[in-house]
Write a structure and sequence with these properties.
8 domains, 39% strand, Immunoglobulin-like, mainly beta, 78 strands, eight-stranded mixed β-sheet
């Protein structure tokens, strides 16, 4: 069957209900009541409980008409009986419960230790035992009871309620204690005020306005005894259980410190007289006794303190005082006028000297000071009322000193102790002097002068007065050793020693700080260091000064001559610009070391002659052939007479296109100076900066830093498979491309240090060639180069011909300073030379050291320097050059193949031009080192135009 109600009996109730055949068989609690834990005395609560009757056959019914026993739950009950009757059948079921005890009462089973208290005390439970009684008959002593903590404010028996709580039930018990009043001491007077005519209030010990009030005579004015009443507040008692008390207090009499004394002198005159009194105050004393008298003699007066006063000894009775009327009054003499020390004995004259009634005894005195005379009465009494001998002081005054002595003469330091002499104001008979000998120079030494006992200063003082004195500084003697020094490459710093007396500060200055500067000055040893300046040759004078010191004056200045000789050479030449003959216009002036040199000469068909010029590569300005790596480092040097070999004779890399670098000429640092005066061009060069006008234009890297070497190409540029512009023997010439491409190919070796040939290098080499050959027609003197041939020659044709070689056949090439085809063969583009409208714009260094405003070369001259005053717009043989500090530039073209520079320049008025130089294989005498094409744009591509390398490694960090 699926009916869910099968087995259930409905609507059955307890009692005699249900008359059917079903019969009650069981009674069970199928759900316990919600509450099963009770406090003793609570009623059973069936809420939530379900009572189920069973009838067999699986039939049940939830019933409600049951009874509960017990209904009230007490201690010890553990279960409740549920009884249900149906028909005449009764069944029961049990419900387990828990009954907890409750607090029934508390009792004080032991009283606290303290049962008696004082007013305002608080209850103290110490020693008290409180016992709790519970509903189950158990008991225990408890401690967490409570009690009042307020102060006792009522005297007598007081009930204290003790409370204790357990499980929400609170019970109390009462304890009676006794509260007694607080006993306080009766106040007493603290100190005693003294009468002074004003109201006085005493100070009290023990008076507390909180505990008592005060009334009666609380203040008074006159000396005497007063009465004050103190009444205690509730809760307080005086000793003897009194609640009030009367206390006396006192104002003391003021003290009279001494008896009055007679203040006037009375002489008998036949009439009654009364004395006047010192120390007599009528408010303090009453006078009695002899108040008047007529005859000469002694009288007795009495003085009694008034009610508010007493004598110094505490008494108040009358005291006697004697006063006098005399027969004669004799005045007490005094010194008449004044005496001043003279060195001779003196006695005074007297004022008020009554020679009839008194006499004097006095001894003559010499020294200044106070002396005494004795006067004796012959009759009567002294004016002060006494009759004994009188000692009267008299004085001799000190003589005056008009001024404090001053130093006489002068002292000068010499290392020995000194004391000064003094002017006429010093007199050892009148004063003493205290002075300490001094050694060092100084202007504030002191001496003290003290008058003797017979003298004083003009201002009346007798204390010591101070005078200053001085020791002047000694004369300085300065010497220097040595008196001259030389600076050179081996001695870039020199020293000399200054000898002086004392500690005057040594200083030194150079009159030419471009040559020599002052380094350290050792003030102890006197050693002075002189430093060179950038290895600059020249002369300077060092002026040495010794300042005034502590003991010596400044010394006379001394000079030390400095000669700086740093250069290895100073070469140069002059060109008479009015002379058109290339062979005679160049001269060697007297101020250079080559003034007597024989010029270099190319003996065509024979051996080149260096003349007097240095021929060793790397010596002085002469370059040295090498193989330079892409990093700008020399891999090996070449045999200058055979580039196919190294210096040691082994095979070189000069023809190896796979070598990681290029064949280059290594140049030293060359300082040059160019200027024009009197229509003469001057050129000077040296290995050092001879003066501030010398500059090494070729020896600057892109960062404007000086470098020790720069590099020019041995061979005309070729191009390798990596599109690098190379300088390698035997390679094809790189031509027929743009200037931009050539620069790119050059930078592919290393963009920071490699470039195509640059203007500064060309200008230097041209001047060096002019100087060596002493001519401006260098084709005629050094070789024509390839200038009348059907085509250009390849690189490496002159590897075994030394650093200089040339011919007059116009087909074999030319070699100068180790570089092939410096002119002729193929035009070479030159960086740093642009032309626009006949105006030449130049850049000398790759950085901005030259004063340009761009940090690298370009192709339009933007940011370049302008060659001012030159507007070259026509072609022709050069007849005039513009002098600049960095080179010579063509400015006129009216010459010929045999005059002036004897080289050709191409120019017009167009713009955007980029220079190329040297000439080509078929340009004949148009070629040469000065030859320049100034009217071709950088984009022109031609088989007659190419480029070669230059390298300027970066300076060391």
């Amino acid at each position: 069957m699926s009916n869910a109600n099968v087995g259930k009996v409905f609507n059955m109730t307890g009692g005699n209900g249900g008359g059917g055949a079903l019969k009650l068989e069981t009674l069970t609690i199928t759900k316990q009541p919600n509450k099963t834990v009770y406090k003793s005395g609570e009623s059973f609560d069936p809420t939530g409980m379900i009572v189920t009757a069973g009838y067999g056959y699986g039939l049940t019914s939830d019933v409600t008409g049951y009874t509960v026993s017990p209904q009230i739950l007490t201690d010890g009950v553990t279960e409740v009986t549920i009884t249900y009757t149906e028909g005449r059948v009764t069944k029961t079921a049990m419900v387990p419960v828990t009954v907890e005890k409750v607090l029934a009462s508390i009792a004080i089973t032991t009283n606290p230790t303290k049962m008696a208290y004082h007013y305002l005390d608080t209850f103290d439970p110490s020693g008290m035992v409180v016992t709790a009684e519970y509903s189950d008959g158990s008991s225990e002593a408890v401690s967490d009871y409570t009690y009042p903590e307020t102060a006792f404010s009522t005297l007598g028996q007081q009930a204290v309620e003790i409370a204790y709580s357990y499980e929400g039930v609170t019970k109390t018990a009462s304890l009676n204690v006794t509260v007694n009043p607080i006993e306080v001491a009766i106040p007493v007077q603290n100190g005693m005020p003294v009468y002074d005519g004003t109201a006085k209030t005493p100070s009290w010990t023990g008076y507390d306005s909180v505990k008592m009030s005060m009334s009666g005579e609380t203040n008074g004015v006159n000396a005497g005894t007063y009465m004050v009443k103190f009444v205690l507040n509730y809760g307080y008692v005086f000793p003897g259980n009194l609640d009030e008390a009367e206390v006396e207090w006192t104002i003391d009499r003021a003290v009279i410190a001494a008896l009055p004394t007679q203040s006037n002198v009375l002489a008998a005159n036949g009439t009654p007289q009364t004395p006047t009194w010192d120390g007599y105050n009528t408010s303090q004393l009453t006078i009695g006794g002899d108040r008047f008298g007529t005859d000469a003699g002694d009288y007795t007066a009495t003085f009694t303190p008034t009610a508010n006063y007493k004598w110094w000894d505490g008494s108040t009775e009358a005291k006697e005082v004697t006063w006098t009327i005399t027969s004669v009054i004799v005045p007490i003499p005094t010194q008449k006028g004044s005496l001043t020390y003279t060195g001779a004995p003196q006695t005074p004259e007297w004022d008020n000297f009554d020679q009839e009634n008194s006499s004097v005894s006095v001894t003559a005195q010499t020294n200044a000071g106070t002396h005494s005379a004795t006067f004796t009465l012959l009759n009567g009494m002294w004016s002060d009322g006494t009759t004994g001998k009188k000692t009267v002081n008299w004085t001799i005054g000190r003589a005056s000193i008009p001024a404090v002595p001053k130093q006489s003469g002068s002292l000068k330091y010499d290392g020995n102790p000194k004391t000064p002499s003094w002017d006429t104001n010093y007199d050892s008979n009148k004063m003493t002097v205290s002075v300490e000998a001094q050694i060092n120079a100084g202007s504030s030494y002191t001496a003290t002068f003290t008058p003797d006992s017979n003298h004083q200063w003009w201002d009346g003082t007798v204390e010591a007065k101070t005078a200053t004195w001085a020791i002047g500084k000694g004369d300085q003697v300065v010497s220097v050793s040595p008196a001259s020094v030389t600076l050179n490459m081996n001695t870039k710093s020199a020293k000399f020693t200054v000898t002086r007396k004392g500690d005057g500060v040594i200083s030194a200055t150079s009159n030419n700080t471009g040559v020599a500067t002052i380094g350290n000055i050792n003030q102890t040893t006197g050693e002075v260091t002189v430093n060179s300046v950038n290895d600059t040759s020249g002369s300077a004078t060092i002026t040495v000064k010794v300042a005034e010191g502590s003991n010596y004056l400044a010394g006379a200045n001394k000079s030390v001559a400095v000669k700086a000789q740093f250069r290895e050479y100073l070469y140069g030449f002059d060109i008479n610009l009015n002379d058109s003959n290339p062979a005679t216009r160049v001269s060697y002036p007297s101020d250079v070391e080559n003034s007597g040199f024989t010029p270099a000469k190319m003996n065509f068909g024979g051996v080149f002659s260096y003349g007097s010029w240095p021929s060793t590569p790397g010596q002085k300005f002469m370059p040295k052939p090498c193989m330079l790596t892409y990093a700008g480092v020399v891999d090996h040097y070449l045999n200058p007479n055979d580039y196919t070999k190294k210096e040691d004779g082994s095979a070189s890399q000069v023809a190896n296109v796979n070598f990681g670098g290029n064949a280059m000429m290594e140049w030293p640092k060359i300082y040059v100076k160019r200027w024009e005066s009197g229509n003469v061009y001057h050129f000077r060069c040296s290995d050092v900066k001879v003066d501030s006008d010398y500059e090494c234009w070729c020896n600057y890297d892109k960062n404007n830093k000086e470098i020790p070497h720069f590099y020019t190409p041995i061979f005309f540029g070729s191009r390798d498979s990596s599109n690098r512009l190379r300088s390698i023997s035997g390679q094809n010439n790189s031509v027929s491309t743009t200037a931009q491409n050539e620069v790119t190919y050059a930078k592919n070796n290393g963009a920071d240090i490699w470039y195509t040939e640059v203007l500064a290098d060309r200008m230097l080499i041209n001047d060096l060639l002019t100087m060596m050959f002493r001519s401006t027609d260098l084709q005629a003197t050094a070789g024509y180069g390839v200038c009348n041939a059907s085509s250009a020659i390849k690189s490496g044709t002159m590897n075994t011909k030394g650093l200089f070689w040339g011919s007059n056949d116009k087909t074999s090439g030319v070699k100068v300073f180790g570089m092939e085809n410096y002119w002729g063969n193929i035009f070479r583009r030159i960086a740093g030379w642009c032309i626009s409208g006949g105006t030449q714009k130049v850049k000398i260094t790759r950085g901005t050291k030259d004063g340009t405003t761009v940090s690298d070369y370009n192709f339009d001259g933007n940011g370049y320097k302008t060659i001012s005053g030159v507007s070259l717009t026509r072609s022709g043989y050069i007849s005039q050059m513009k002098t600049e500090p960095f080179g010579r530039f063509p400015e006129a073209a009216n010459g010929s193949t045999t005059t002036y520079e004897a080289d050709y320049v191409w120019a017009d008025s167009g713009s955007g031009y980029y220079a190329y130089v040297g000439g080509g294989w078929n340009f004949d005498l148009y070629c040469g080192p000065f030859s320049a094409v100034l009217y071709i744009t950088p984009s022109v591509s031609s088989a007659a135009i190419g480029a070669a390398l230059s390298c300027k490694p970066l300076a060391a960090a």
